[in-house]
């Protein structure tokens, strides 16, 4: 009996030893410990997630749309025009938005509107086409002295359609009151303007006078301008660039001065007008004489490549003159459908 009890105790002891020393049991204990640790960490994270964080602020940008388009009309007059007046029309307007100066020398200066010039920009005087040769070639100047202008209007965009196909780039209207539209205050008024440019020794001056009495008014003005060659730093032509682009040698070059860039001009106008209660009727005569040079440029591909011939071909002088007759009338009516009738006539 005692032997049986001893054997049973031995078997029970061996079973406990085997059970507690089994690797599977050890892994299960480790897994239980790991799961307990994970639960504790998750509980810590969940508790930390409930901690309120600082709110994120976003800046709001407000964009307001407007139906007001950019003004297609730019007008220079009075003091602003006097300050910006240059030797040419392009020089006067080059600071306006979308307008630049197409210069084949200081004596030319055609206006370029949105990259278009010449026949694509219509030049007008008092609402009538200038009818000069500036639209035929970029080296021909506009036949008008900017010092005489009372206002200059630049028109761009769809509004230029009313002036025809030649105004696809824009329109420039030069207002010159050589035909009086009203009697001067106190019977007389006048204006003088004198300018000097130290670079080319450009000397320019004008004088205008308006006299009126009763129903008649008279306008007279005169201008004169003269300039020498323009001074520059370095040489007038980049000889290396000419050889690389045109594979020819420059025929003539100058240092510190642009040869053949001098010019001189003079002219004047006279006008008379009959002014009444319902409008006016008048006429005027205007004459301009101008002589200017085209600076030497890239040599041409002529058969005779001698230096003398090339220099003679590049020394181009343009002698321009214009005589202009204008007739202008305005009749103010009492009809609402026809408030006024305006008629202008010009003879070159």
Radius of gyration (CA) equals 44 Å
| Assembly classification | single chain
- Extended strand count: 16
- H/E element sequence: HHEHHEEEEEEEEEEHEEEHEE
The portion of residues assigned to helices is: 10-25%
**Strands of the largest sheet, in order across it?**
8-9-10-13-14-15-16
Sheet having the most strands:
7 strands, antiparallel
Total individual domains: 2
* Overall spatial form: elongated
Structural class: alpha+beta
Whole-Å distance between the termini? 154 Å
Query: Total number of helical segments?
Result: 6
Low-confidence stretches: 45-49, 298-312
Instruction: Calculate the mean pLDDT score and round it.
Output: 80
How much of the sequence lies in strands comes to 35-45%
Descriptive overview:
The chain is of the alpha+beta class and about 350 residues long. The chain folds into two domains: about 70-175, Beta Complex (Ferric Hydroxamate Uptake Protein, Chain A, domain 1); about 180-348, no CATH class. Helix content is about 20%, strand content about 35%. The protein contains six helices and 16 strands. The protein has a seven-stranded antiparallel beta sheet. The chain has a five-stranded mixed beta sheet with strand order 1-6-7-4-5. It is elongated, with a radius of gyration of 44 Å.
Compact description:
With 348 residues, the protein is of the alpha+beta class. Helices cover 21% and strands 37% of the residues. The chain is built from 6 helices and 16 strands.
């Amino acid at each position: 009996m005692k032997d049986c009890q001893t054997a049973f105790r031995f078997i029970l002891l061996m079973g406990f030893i085997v059970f507690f020393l089994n690797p599977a049991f050890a892994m299960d204990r480790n897994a239980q410990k790991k799961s307990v640790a994970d639960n504790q960490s998750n509980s810590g994270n969940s508790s930390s997630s409930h901690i309120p964080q600082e709110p994120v602020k976003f800046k709001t940008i407000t964009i307001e749309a407007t139906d007001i388009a950019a003004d297609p009309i730019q007008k220079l007059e009075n003091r602003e025009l006097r300050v910006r007046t240059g030797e040419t029309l392009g020089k006067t307007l080059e600071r306006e938005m979308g307008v630049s100066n197409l210069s084949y020398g200081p004596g030319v200066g055609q206006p370029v509107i949105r990259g278009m010039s010449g026949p694509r920009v219509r030049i007008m005087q008092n609402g009538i086409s200038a009818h000069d040769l500036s639209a035929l070639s970029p080296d021909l100047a506009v036949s008008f002295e900017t010092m005489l202008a009372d206002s200059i209007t630049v028109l761009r965009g769809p509004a230029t359609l009313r002036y025809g196909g030649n105004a696809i780039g824009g329109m420039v209207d030069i207002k010159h009151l050589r035909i009086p539209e009203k009697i001067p205050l106190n019977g007389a008024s006048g204006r003088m303007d004198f300018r000097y440019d130290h670079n080319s020794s450009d000397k320019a001056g004008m004088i205008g006078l308006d006299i009126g009495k009763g129903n008649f008014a008279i306008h007279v003005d005169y201008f004169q301008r003269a300039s020498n060659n323009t001074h520059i730093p370095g040489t007038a032509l980049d000889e290396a660039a000419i050889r690389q682009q045109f594979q020819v040698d420059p025929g003539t070059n100058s240092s510190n001065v642009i040869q053949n860039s001098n010019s001189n001009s003079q002219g004047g106008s006279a006008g008379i007008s009959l002014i009444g209660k319902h409008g006016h009727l008048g006429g005027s005569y205007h004459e301009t004489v101008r002589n200017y040079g085209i600076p030497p440029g890239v040599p041409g591909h002529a058969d005779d490549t001698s230096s003398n011939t090339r220099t003679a071909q590049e020394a181009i002088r343009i002698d321009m003159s214009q005589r202009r007759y204008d007739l202008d009338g305005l009749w103010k009516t009492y009809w609402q459908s026809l408030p006024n009738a305006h008629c202008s006539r010009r003879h070159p």
